[in-house]
């Protein structure tokens, strides 16, 4: 049996340094927990790599890994300085060890290992998805169980968060992740990267009723999602209009976003009927989209439960959620485990394995 975390009795830890390098944000944060068990973000430093990847219309793994190497030491120093702490003042280091781009993960894991060894601190490998799943406990003190919609560039899942370490996947995308669909739509229409904010900005100027775009899986049983058919239908509409006018682009974005909001709301409604919930929570980069938030807020109101959407900087990849998950692990007195980088690491270990972004994705 692995040893109990050295020198940290259950509930004793008061602060953790979190490190996040799973994709294209280099982040570090210090999060503290008071005697009442509630968390407080003391610092949250993030370096975005948008400039490095925008010319390619998406994340280039090798460039992302090199950017992490160049930025991480400074970001960690900034997070400690902002929190008014030295490395020896924190109780442990928590690092994202999966899922994510393997080269990027290795930068964070290797750095965290070195710092923990030098300072004699416990080291915890955190599931990136668990960080998202537990964020509403940090920000809004949400009580278990709650329904989580996790929507990002690599993940689209409905998850029952029944307690710390207890996650049950109710549904997932069977093809593209929602953030991926936004990015591909933006690229198709000649918009910038990242695609989600660009599509949302143009949608505000467009007519959502001009184009009749499909709602895949609408009305079917279960809680799964599908976005590839919507993306294909939009491409066909766009190709029929070439050359596209500015109004064409605005209206296509508006129609696409309206379809997405409707799909997300309808599929999430199925999950709300699975069991009683204390809240409906949305997390991940796409959670910053106001149309998606509005549709989910209306859905939660109809169900008579709270709707929780962490502020935008805590929806996208950040290290505060990793530090908080580390604090919860320390508070539970969990055993120390070997920290390895895992490109795949399902939140629900008992669920059917996913292929690619979704059930029908490419094998990798």
Major beta sheet, specifics? Answer: 5 strands, mixed
Second-tier CATH architecture of the largest domain: 2-Layer Sandwich
- What is the helix fraction of residues, given as a range? 40-55%
Terminal Cα span: 33 Å
- What is the averaged pLDDT score? 91
Q: SS-based structural class?
A: alpha/beta
CATH fold-level assignment of the largest domain? Nucleotidyltransferase, domain 5
Q: So what's the CATH class of the largest domain?
A: Alpha Beta
Oligomeric status of the shown chains? Answer: single chain
Give the helices and strands as they follow along the chain.
EEEHHEHEHEEEHHHHEHEHH
Count of domain modules: 2
β-strand percent reads 15-25%
- Within CATH, the superfamily of the largest domain carries the name ATPase, nucleotide binding domain
Q: Give me the number of helical elements.
A: 11
Radius of gyration: 20 Å
